[in-house]
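Task: fold both queries, return tokens.
Query 1:
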Amino acid sequence: MVNSSNKSKQTRRKFTATDLVYKELKDQILTLKLSPGTLLEEDRILGKLGFSRTPFREACMRLKEEGWLLSISRRGYLISPIMFEDMSDIYSLRLILESASVQIVASRASEKDIQLLEEMVRFEEDELGSGQSLKKSLVELSYKFHMRFAELAGNTRIVNIMQSAMEHCERFDSMLSRYDSQAPWVRHSKIVLAIKNRDPIEASKRMQEHIQQARSRILNAFSGHALELSLPVQDFRMQVPLSPLHNHGRKGQSAVFPRRPRSR
């Protein structure tokens, strides 16, 4: 397990005021409590959080370094807009990483690992019930699913990259839930079944299908169409080189949530 020791260290670690402000601000950004493209209202947030300006500004610097905030001269910070191109790029990245890593998981996962994944599938089915409405518990579960897949692959760098990618996807899903709370949910059960059957190639196929469906759901909701994206399934255990993705031409950036004009 990649993160068992890391988690225990995090549990023992004493969080600073900056850590707490950072966590709260980041959570509000990912869940869209802080709207993309709007100015961060320092005084209002400080009044709610009850911290001084120093940890707040230190937390903002960390969030700026991670790309969640943009610095505006003499104005403070802007919540980073959600760019249409970023959505496509994040899912393209996931397609490459997870198609490879899930093959490793299908080969290495222990019975206990598989049992845990099956428990998560049962929870997902319970949450869905008779419908497939998009809700916070499912968004959080999706994050846990894909981080678990990354952890089981046993590569710390993949885990770190996937954490960033899945945080962006959490933000996308939060946006989609506001736009269309009845958007169809993309299940994880077929991926888990392929892992249980110890079939790396099938697991990779199912992961690609899953990411494609999740990507199309987002892009279709906000553009009316989605670009086709495909990646040949290969056996990464044998170190077969990855075929390059087609580079779709782009003519600039399109913000899904553009900055609102300042009222006069």
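Query 1 returned. Query 2:
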Amino acid sequence: MRPCPQSRPPAPARPIKPRLALLLGAAVLALACNRAPTPAPDDPEQPATIFPLPSATTPTDDSKWLQAGLPVPATDTAIEFVAFGDTGSGLPPQFEVAASLLRHCQTRRCDLVTHVGDLIYPAGIAHAADPLIEERVNRPYRGLVAPFFVALGNHETYGSVDALIAWSSRLRIAGLVGEVPAVDLRLPARWYTFVAGPVRFLALDSNLPSEDQARWAERVLADSVKAGTPWVIAFSHHPRRSYGPHGDATADLAAWYDRVLCGRVDLLISGHDHDQQLLKPRCGVHQLVTGGGGASLRPSVKGEATVWARSMHGFAHLRVDLSGIDVTIHGSNGGAAYTSHLDRAR
């Protein structure tokens, strides 16, 4: 098989460090060749990354990248952010919610975005240059300047998770040389953590409730206690509890959630059910379901633990300070449908 044809790259506008030049060259070569990924040796079902990436449990350069550009340092006592998920349909509701979100963040403080998965339907992406990235992510959310943190949905796992991570890593490389991505998406690994203001965030992969991920989360949460971080918020795709059509987590995932979250996390933000739900705390953990980002809505009913629920497109705006967590659910027209204040329950 002949190697991909080499072309002479344009002269850089400024000197590039050798390690960065190597990463850029690998990314560009992989994109130009459009080569199909080969099976990873430890998981034949998942294609390998197209260039080396740190592991989910190695927060070295990635922790610096996750913190880079955050407008809220860990010393701040307040943060405001938006949360939503189940977006990637490419249908009009996705663009309506996206437009509403952009307008909202032009007039309100939006330090960052937490996306709870199902970024691209029906099966994620096939490779890191998949045109669905432009169609389902860059085009609807172009102009959103806040860092866009993603937890993996089940539909991402039907495609190549490694390709999505590789695309996110390519954005990191572009940022290092001064390029501004259309959407500042951050997904360094299947699970990861960062701190913003008074909050330790954990992005969990609820598709893979493994022992490795549980031990990693337990170490992160123990370190958070030692550091005295006031609040801990986890976001993932599958809810622990839900009164939507998908219902509660499976028995295995529920037991995993209880081990990792109970008494350690203040709020779990999820999606999967295409509606909006705020549920009473369980074992010290409040839960917000905000899966109305653009996919077809599903009926939502109220149950014993329901605080508020509605089948509607939209997103949540959260303000966290030392006094508690304020949650406001916004519809696709931008209007506030519900507001609540959450006190610490653990």
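Both queries returned. Flag for query 2: Confidence is low (pLDDT under 50) at residues 1-61.
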